[in-house]
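INSTRUCTION: Work out how this chain folds

Token vocabulary: learned, describes local backbone geometry

RECORD BEGINS BELOW THIS LINE
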Amino acid sequence: MIDGLKETIAYQTELIQSTKDELLEVKHDQNVLQTQNEKLHEEVRALRAQIDALPSTPVAKSWAAVAASHPPLQPNHQHIDKDRNCVRISTQRSFVDPRDNDMSDQNNFGRYLPTETANTHIRTALLSTPSTQDAQVAGVGTTKTGYVIRFKDPESAEAARNNSEWLNELGNNTKLVKPRFGVVVHRTPTDDFDLENANAQAIEKIMEENELTGRGFQIEEIAWLKKKDKALGKFASLGIWFDTAEGTDFILENGFIVGQRFIGSVERCELKRKRCFRCQRFGHFAWSCKETPRCGHCAGQHERERCPPGVRARCLDCGGDHPTSDRQCLTPATFSSQC
């Protein structure tokens, strides 16, 4: 009985500590948001002052002039192009963990290397192989098992996928990670599928009812998206993973058919990656960060709250003239990774 009480106390202590850690992270995020709001208020006040200083007589414009100054929006194919140009690789840990203070040995390729170091290794390996020496790399981002490489064009990405010699140059059991393109179908009736005992039959049923086979699309995996300790209800979200981006695009545009029931609530399946707001690296939270602080606005070695006003923005991922994690950044590290 005493042993049981001790285990209960230990579990509750661990739970309390975990809750405290989460509260610290939330508090830090609130402080960051508060600082950003204050800066936004300052910018709004400055803009209002500029507007008040403008002449009161407006300059007349024709509807043609207004339309010419606002060209029609073009369809956004950024996600599709990004997927086609990306190659993901997995590798083992290097002998020296780059997250430690000892950064003397960066000759070994492995996980968690700084972006600049990983970029150098990958470019060198591609150049050393005749079949990939013309491949042009746009940027490199980190993942939990390795790296994601965005090439400048589909031809470069295809050359990297179809040739493994450059992976051998990297060493450390580096391999290609097969991309997965997923969608989530919400409120799917669970009675229509037995994923535990008849997964292959469920995939065949979906392929047939949605006319996917004739279009050349192939489903690789399906699964109910729920917590392990939660019972499966009458309706649930169904995750469907294709071998190509075109398969997901078809379902997103046309909806999902199951048992002659049309389900239009379909969205792209994405996993949001956690980023430390203190050092801007992935894999840990700000409250546990032991790295050198890096500003998310100017990339300087200081926290975001201490960034001097008027400093030019610079992205830590691509070096562009925008803050780190900005949506306009085309470096894979800022994108959500596929399910």
About this structure: DSSP finds eight helices and twelve strands in the chain. Residues 78-177 form one domain. The two ends are 44 Å apart (CA to CA).
